[in-house]
Model the fold of this input.
Amino acid sequence: MVRSRYYQGMIDLDLIEKGSLYSDLKKSYIIFICIDKPFKGVLDLPIYTFKSVCTENRDIVLSDEITKVFLNVSTGQKDIPQNLRFFFDYLKGKAPQNDLCKKIDVSVSKAISHEDWRSDYMTLSMKYKEIYSEGQAEGRAEGIIEGRSEGETRLGRLILMLEKNGRLSEISKAASDEAYRARLYEEFRIDEEK
Done:
């Protein structure tokens, strides 16, 4: 998951000041709470823990003090510790069943009711939506330009083929009749030529 690398970079940048020594970096844990199974086609585990290991010799662990943990809330395994099961159930929307989940629930309620936090969250959410919309608009514009260019290229090829085959009288009809033009593209295999 490339996202875990992104978050690791953000954490490291936050932990170390410009000009500081790399040895100032602290031990870090990135914990992903995944409602759906995070890794498809592999053993269904409740927790996946990753550390940096040597590919050639898995006994060699890189001491970079980075741990990435993925919690698989949707695990089908039944033999997981009860407190972890309570936590997963809480994340699925059930009432808290142990002290830890009750403490988390109180903290979540405080965060949700805190006006400054809500404002910051909404501002960030709106900014993400704005960036997404801008990206969509930019993508559409690029797609239109690319589509026009490809369309002009196809039509140019068709005109050259008609001219090459002495069928000049068909150029006007091909330019104005979309269905006729489509048949000519197929006849001359214009889409197959790239």
